[in-house]
Amino acid sequence: MAVVGTTTAFRLSSGARQLAVMGGRTIAYREYGNAGPLVLLIHGVGSNGDCWQGVAPMLAAGGVHVVSVDLPGHGQSSKDRGDYSLGSMASAIRDLLDHLGHSKAVVVGHSLGGGIAMQFLYQYPQYVAGLVLVSSGGLGDETRRWLRMISLPGASAVLAGVAHPATLSAVKWLGRRLRSVGVKSEVLSADALDVVGELFTERDARQAFLSTLRSVVDAKGQKVSALGHLPKAAEMPVLLIWGDLDPTIPLSHGEGAAALLPNGRLVVFEGAGHEPHASDPERFVELILGYAAARQAAVGAL
Predict the structure, then answer these.
(1) pLDDT truncated to tens, each residue of the chain (302 aa)?
(2) SS3 state at 274
């Protein structure tokens, strides 16, 4: 019986970034471990596969094979003027799995990555051994005001100004001052601001980010709903992970989705914001390992 995500050959699996060229588009990815069920990690808009660095090695040490991807337009992947819709992103994920020789995966999506994971399930259900939604987009209308604002025309010039070294230095100073008096902000963290500098300095990166954002967000909020795709997951146990203090996508979205899923399980990280996997990586890893082992057993019994 097939093991979920077993590959035909062992490859470099140290977590070094690698590049796959498929159909004229380059997709960057990292691979950790080389045995056990495959866990595919999909990041959110404006981020890249490095956001999983705090949990990916621990997952591999726990006995799963991990692939984290830089979505098209993000990280070291191509930033062309192509299609950045959810459907196109899902197709890129499928192409990467085929390229690496994987037939099934437990798909873990954070924020926009959750919307892509649900779109991937809708388009390619045969590839999905399990679904984990982490502070997922696509399950309601609300999102942060600043995301709605930068979806508007003219945002590219504003983002270029934000990414100026002098501006970033001042904002980092403000973030440090706030932390010194006990005020923490994910947006003003040094890691988040480093991503801003990397993402918005180059015109191609800015345009790819805006194309991705505008495919799912407008001035009114999230404009793409994946709720209609949830029936595809009705028979599959779905794990939802959320921070109770998420300022970007409210916990109520996760609660609503869990209520619609007969086999849905919502786990709330108290005190966590939009990145529960960063707030409590050990707990996150424990949840993913347990879920992946259960899905491997279920798929292996088919």
Answers:
(1) 233 433 333 344 568 899 999 878 899 999 999 889 999 999 988 789 999 999 999 999 999 999 999 999 888 998 887 777 888 889 999 999 999 999 999 999 999 899 999 999 999 999 999 999 999 987 766 565 655 555 445 454 555 555 545 555 655 555 566 556 665 555 445 555 455 555 555 666 666 666 666 666 655 656 567 777 777 777 899 999 999 999 888 999 999 999 989 899 999 999 999 999 999 999 999 999 999 999 998 876 33
(2) coil
- 274 catalytic residue (yes or no): yes
Each domain of the chain, given as residue ranges in start order, spans 14-140+225-300, 145-214
Is 164 considered catalytic here? Answer: no
Cβ-proximal residues to 168 (8 Å cutoff; 6+ apart), any chain: 162, 193, 196, 197
Predicted TM-score (pTM) above 0.85: no
- Give the bridge partners for 29, in sequence order: 18, 69
Single out the catalytic residue among 68, 78, 111, 136: 111
Which of 78, 274, 277, 280 is the catalytic position?
274
Q: Which residues contact 85 (CB under 8 A, 6 or more apart)?
A: 215
Tokens for 151, please give them: 């979806």
Q: CATH topology for 14-140+225-300?
A: Rossmann fold (3.40.50)
- CA 179/CA 61 separation, integer angstroms: 33
- Does residue 111 carry a catalytic annotation? yes
Mode of pairing for the β-strands spanning 38-42 and 65-69: parallel
Burial profile 179-216: b = 16 or more Cβ within 10 angstroms, e = fewer: eeeeeeebebbeebbebbbebbbeeebbbbbbbbbbbb
From the list 50, 70, 246, 280, the catalytic residue is: 246
